[in-house]
Design brief:
353 residues, alpha/beta, Aspartate Aminotransferase, domain 1, Aspartate Aminotransferase, domain 2, 7-stranded mixed sheet, 4-stranded antiparallel sheet, 11 helices, 13 strands, 16% strand
Length: 353
């Protein structure tokens, strides 16, 4: 029996601390979908949805709702089973075999796992010491390595930093290869280039409903691009790739942008509490902890011994996102959960020997 030899270099996806009672490891929304929207979803499932029928393969109502919500042409929208499926389409089916996929070290892991699976050459450019990167790093690297695809998250995961809109535009205009701007966290910033999708023939913008709109469980991502790239993505996607249930949930949510606005306001309020408390802990840590600036719904920390901190929190049934021996990422949560986690976190960091 022959299998893809790349499999030997991979391991099953396991980013989140499944099994822990308190999880601030996955950057999910801390604002529940309100009851009136849940009822609308429930009523639709009960009275309208026919689960014995295949989904609308053209996702007509969903694309209309997304186009209206974000002022883009519905004909240039490709929904997917989370951004992960869209990344799979782009890296595995648009980039030529053996092509160069270029980005930044410690960006979203799906870029690199798909590059490996589909035998694309992955080039990961180093970050600056403060965990940021610049437009010039990507432009120069893409030209040096003759990239077929440049892909990066903005705002960035896991650093929480961002490139300004004009810098992203400079990347797009400086390169003739495909540029994918993954705006999964753009709900928390005003530097989007979504309005430019369709105006540059080498640009794809990725979005999600997993962060501000509380639909991580619905697995809903969107790619927005030119008619030509949109047609190509529809041609290579799997049939019925978005379930009827997910289409219904996403469409209803997109018709309630007042919930999105309220959720973002609450998340930003909780982020203020989180960042202030973390900075207070860092100030008392005698250099054992550093807080990286963040514009999103999580904060990246440098710790003298991040693995020890993570292990001690696990004993308290708390999971944060451990990246390596020195980097730990913490997602925002409701105020009660934040206080509980940060009290435990502070005690471990300040009493560490």
């Amino acid at each position: 029996m022959r299998l893809n030899p790349v499999i030997k270099e991979l391991s099953p996806f396991s980013y989140c601390g499944t099994g822990y009672k308190t999880r601030l490891d996955a950057n999910e929304s801390c604002v529940p979908i309100p009851d009136y929207i849940k009822k609308e979803i429930s009523d639709y499932i009960t009275n309208t949805l026919d689960l014995n029928r295949y989904p609308d393969d053209l996702t007509v109502e969903l694309r209309k709702a997304y186009g209206k919500a974000f002022n883009v042409d519905p004909e240039c929208v490709v929904p997917g089973n989370g951004s992960d499926e869209l990344i799979n389409m782009i890296v595995g089916r648009l980039v030529p075999h053996g092509g160069v996929v270029l980005g930044i070290q410690r960006d979203f892991g799906s870029y690199w796992s798909n590059a490996a699976i589909f035998e694309r050459k992955a080039v990961k450019l180093p970050r600056l010491e403060d965990m940021t990167f610049t437009a010039d790093i990507l432009i120069d690297g893409a030209k040096q390595h003759n990239a077929d695809l440049v892909i990066f998250s903005n705002p960035n995961n896991p650093s929480g930093s961002q490139l300004m809109r004009q810098e992203v535009i400079r990347i797009i205009e400086s390169l003739d290869c495909l540029v994918v701007v993954d705006e999964a966290y753009m709900d928390f910033s005003d530097q989007s280039v979504l309005d430019l999708a369709g105006k540059y023939d080498n640009l794809i913008v990725l979005r999600t409903l997993s962060k501000a709109m509380g639909a991580a469980g619905a697995r809903m991502g969107f790619a927005v691009s030119t008619p030509e790239i949109t047609y190509a993505m529809r041609s290579v996607r799997d049939a019925y790739n978005v379930s009827s249930l997910d289409q219904a949930v996403a469409t209803i949510l997109l018709n309630h942008l007042e919930y999105r606005e309220a959720a973002m306001a609450e998340i930003k309020k909780m982020m203020g509490i989180l960042k202030n408390r973390l900075n207070e802990i860092a100030a008392k840590s005698n250099g054992r902890m550093k807080v990286y600036p963040s514009v999103v719904n999580f904060v990246l920390l440098w710790l003298e011994d991040a693995r020890f901190i993570s292990d001690e929190l696990h004993k308290k049934d708390i999971s944060l996102r451990l990246l390596d021996d020195h980097l730990l990422r913490i997602s925002v949560a409701d105020e009660k959960t934040l206080k509980f986690v940060l009290d435990e976190f502070e005690a471990i960091v300040l009493n560490q020997r």
